[in-house]
Amino acid sequence: MTATETSASGHPLYPPRPDGWRRHQTLITSVAVFAFLAILPWFPVFAFTSIFDTSNDFGAGNLAFVFAFATAAVGFNLLIGFSGTLGLAHAGLFALGAYGTAILSAPPECLEEGCDPIVREAAAGYGWPFLVTIPVVCVAAAIIGVVVGFPAARLKGFFLAIATLALGELIVTIIRLDDDVWSGLKTNGGTGKQVPIFELFGAGQVRSAYFLALIALIITFIAYVILTERRLGRTLKTVRDIEIATGPIGISATYYKLVAFGLSAVAAALAGVAWAQNSAFVNPQSFRTRLLVFLLVVLIVGGLGRLWGPLVGAVFFVYLRQELQDTQKLLFLLIGIALMLSILILPDGFTSLPDRFRDSRWAQDLRKRYKSMGVGG
Questions:
Q1: Alpha-carbon dihedral angle through residues 81, 82, 83, 84, given to the nearest 10 degrees
Q2: Under a CB-based contact definition with an 8 Å cutoff, are residues 197 and 280 in contact?
Q3: What whole-number distance in Å separates Cα of residue 64 and Cα of residue 58?
């Protein structure tokens, strides 16, 4: 039994950990959820809805999009939910992951006389192994996130949001530069690019994308849990809530904000990799400010600062997008309504409903009645 750290007055420095199975509740729940998601391609539990019916490529592809958006939202959650830093460069970093792996893993340009120029431009790349490109683009995203974080860490509110939003737009603008700059790394039709498909043990494009996106989500989820339940998470909350007091107690708010920027950038790039494999084609129009709005909807509707908020919000968003894909105006209207209702009625998102029910007066009265009857006493 480990001793509890206490202050000079004898009070515990950190909240006491629960005993028994509740101490490992997060681990048990996480293993159960991800094991369930891993077997869905063989047991299509959601066959009653065609959107998430994993017995076909359409449903499996939609769930792969859910995992990709949730992965990006996990990093967003760390940046906004824990550090309180409103960084809005995620769309550009998402594009960096998608385009980076597409360009690095594509075959080199064919210069022989018999090569079709359209195919040649579509396939031009560096021929790197796909699995090697993933850490490369993640490290590049982390470096960009930290570099941007230096000036951004000293900004607040509106100025911080505009500065980071400009960075995201800058990345997308660089991608859209003309062919003279990129030297044939685009398709003949412009800045869109075919994505070389990586297949896991011959599982096919969609199933491979499904498991790649799920693995990306699991990695970011585990990292999020480990980091937020340790010193980093507590310090980021301190920076968020009482930043003015961090200097006198020896905590560098700038350093921890840079860490949050870098980690969230890695999650965004990893999500872009998974999204690109599922889409099989990337285009700058997919990474404009609209994508940033989508990620904010995923995070806020699911639950800002909550563990399962990104996954729940991503399920809601992808389902709504597929149901209304033929009526884009109605889609944006309903997304706006959902966002406003979440802020006004459920500020902590859908994942706060169990806690709200547990703490409600009706639930408390019910527990008192059961105790008075000797049930569970």
A1: 30
A2: yes
A3: 10
Long-range contacts of 200-205 (CB under 8 A, 24+ apart): 204/57, 205/277, 205/280
User: 244 is in which domain, residue-wise?
Assistant: 56-284
In the numeric block, which tokens belong to residue 52?
């998430």
Q: Which residue has the higher pLDDT, 18 or 53?
A: 53
Mean of pLDDT values over 51-72 = 94
How does pLDDT run across 298-350, given as a tens digit for each residue?
Answer: 999 998 888 899 999 999 999 999 988 878 788 888 888 888 888 888 888 88
Please state, in angstroms and as integers, the Cα–Cα distance from residue 327 to each residue in 298, 336, 340, following that order: 20, 15, 20
The answer as to whether 365 is a domain residue is no
Handedness of CA 149, 152, 158, 161 (dihedral sign): negative
Taking CA atoms, 363 is separated from 263, 354, 356, in Å, by 39, 11, 9
Residue 240 domain-assigned (yes or no): yes
In a domain, 358, yes or no: no
Give the model confidence (pLDDT) of 11-35 as tens digits. 555 555 555 556 677 788 889 999 9
User: pTM for this one?
Assistant: 0.85
Count structural domains, the chain.
1
Residue 35 covered by a domain: no
Q: Which of 59-63, 163-167, 185-189, 229-233 has the highest mean pLDDT?
A: 59-63
